[in-house]
Amino acid sequence: MTEKFIVLASVSPIIAIIAENGLGFIGICAMNLGTLMVTIIEAMLIVAGAGEIEELTEDEIQRFEYFASHPLTINSASACELENSGLFTTFRAASLSDYISRNGPVLSVRELAAVDGFDISIAQALSHFVSFAETAVEVGNWSMDSEFQTSVTSRGLDASGQNSLSWLSCAKVRNGQRLYFNAGAGGLGEQTPKPGNISLSSFTLSCGAHLPKSNIKLYLGDFNARFGQGVILWNTLLIDSATSVNSLVLRPSGLAVSHSSKGNYANTGAGISWTGRSFSISAALGLPGLKSSLIAISAGRKPPGAGFEPMLNINWWGRHCTLGLSSVTSLTAGPSGQLVTSSISTDFRSCLRGADLAGELALTFATSSSATSPPPASISARLACALPVGEVFKAGALLGYSPDKHLVRIVAQADAPKGHHFSVGTSFTKRKNDCTARIDCTALFKWADIVRWEIRLKDDFTFLQPQNQVHSGRTMLSAVWAEHWTTSLMAACSKASEWGLAIFLEQAYRSESFLSAHLRAGIFSIDDWDGRIYFYEYDIPGRFTVPALYGRGYWISAHLNALITRYFRLAFRLAYKDYGLMEPGTRKASVLEARLSFTSNF
Predict the structure, then answer these.
(1) Coil, strand, or helix at residue 375?
(2) 151 backbone dihedrals φ, ψ, rounded to 5°
(3) Cβ(21)–Cβ(541) under 8 Å?
(4) How many Å apart are CA 573 and CA 308, to the nearest integer?
(5) What angle do CA 580, 583, 586 make, to 5 degrees?
């Protein structure tokens, strides 16, 4: 999501409300320290350094879902495996590997929190995705996941309505951490109003192999390449909220196979990485535009053409710091000729007496075959720190500079032993045509693991042209009133040129790993597009829905995720939105949406 989205949905994960994955239900988990109750959605955000679920991409969501059902055995994993899992930064992977080699296996959350670069919140969050067993599961065991999804969307229920149908099918085969194979394809068809052909809209094909004796990993097809702190190459959405101290310290995570069923947010090509005792080397060749060209050819359209993108990354780590050197060159065909863009950067990450420091300096230049385009050159930099103050408080700051954006962000947060959380963040962003300032405050209260109350207030100010100011606030109150039942009430308001309001009531049911269900009904009145409101809604596995509420009307949605047998799971979502509270001349078409997912695991 871009910064133009003024009112973002807070995650507001609820005790005992479930966010499902493709293999099982994931809900509230009590940490073995007995001090902080963390839902799996909260755990995802802490590990990723995000403030909101909307900041995570589809690939990141599915990666977390995979490790929630297939925990990574950290005591037997190498530093390369820890890093390539995406659950650990380069520094944390090196620090944890060094700790295990010197002191033996890590056996608890408390011990993990004592390792350099970790703290109690990170350790508790990681416990959702890792195993403290001393040996890994037998690597000779093969596992396979397959999934089929289909959805129908109808805009307007009369004869002139517009209907669309989509489908997605994928299969993933794994042999522990040694071999991974993923294939998937999706289609989309428009019927307006006569039925039309469903054309290919997405596909993914990726595989990865780990050669343990030589400590080499190979990647082919779709892969992720995340180098540096985000200045050079970060092929997922950059986190840009001001609600989490962890979000200030973006960091490299190397090459990894893509877990996405659609192949979104991934490079296409081939890569190889090698890890030594204290350094690693990764090289890859991306082919940007290749998949878009193949999809266009399958639909009978003219392909846009593919480019070349060679990448190189070298990382060195010691006990208290890591240093990286990255180079990325992109060759693409533009309207005025061949365009070559090249970047080289150096980045660092360190942990000194509990304080996280991270930074990057990058030089980027471009050349074009067009005589009218002189080769520009630019420098980008970012410097961030996250500093714990005692056992409760944490503060952080980020300075960012690039030719098109200057950024300053300061965040302070407090986490009380009972699970209460408070944070306040401020940020100032200057671009060529505007300046934006943001103030973001969040308070979360928990009582006896039964009642949860979250309040969030946000102000966005836009200076220069056009001048604008948007206020927003939201609050959620939820209560676990029976063993399997949770009721939640949420209200959000916004103020741009006019006030807007949205309210919903949700009832959720969860019965361990067998069944979860959600029923939500709400009403909204928002006349200003700049004040539109977003609410996160549960969806079928591997997807999440963040609809924009704008206009006047009401909506209702139902979600069901059920275990049919030991190996099969069925998920279903049905949603209806109606703009019946608007005047007939301005009323928008109602929207009916249905999605179905069938998942198997062997």
Answers:
(1) coil
(2) -145, 150
(3) yes
(4) 40
(5) 100
pLDDT, residue 585, reads: 80
Beta strand pairing status for 162-175 and 216-227? unpaired
Which residue type is seen at 319? R
Per-residue pLDDT tens for 13-31?
A: 222 222 333 323 222 222 2
Distance CA 146, CA 542 (A): 12
With 0-12 / 13-18 / 19 or more C-beta atoms within 10 angstroms meaning exposed / middle / buried, residue 226 is buried
Handedness of CA 138, 82, 288, 262 (dihedral sign): positive
pTM for the predicted model, two decimal places: 0.72
CB atoms within 10 A of CB 474: 24
Q: Provide the token pair at 480.
A: 């676990």
Q: How far is CA 334 from CA 306, 365, 385, in A?
A: 11, 16, 39
State the sign of the Cα–Cα–Cα–Cα dihedral 58, 63, 64, 70.
positive
CA distance 299 to 483: 52
Rounded CA-CA distance 517/22 in Å is: 15
Q: Report the 10 Å Cβ neighbour count for 212.
A: 13
DSSP code at position 260 = -
Amino acid at 102: R
Give the pLDDT of residue 136.
60
Beta strands in 354-467 (DSSP E): 355-368, 377-389, 393-402, 405-415, 421-431, 434-447, 451-464
Q: How long is the chain?
A: 602
Structure tokens at 89: 């930064």
- The answer, yes or no, to whether residue 539 has pLDDT greater than 90, is no
C-alpha span between 39 and 58 (Å, rounded): 19
Peptide bond into 376 cis (omega under 30): no
Cα dihedral 269, 275, 279, 282 in deg (nearest 10): -10
- Whether 437 and 460 have beta carbons less than 8 Å apart is answered as yes
- Dihedral angle, C-alpha 96, 102, 105, 111, nearest 10 °: -60
Which positions ≥6 away from 214 have C-beta within 8 Å? 274
Q: What letter would DSSP give residue 37?
A: E
- Specify the DSSP element, H or E, that contains 58: helix 58-69
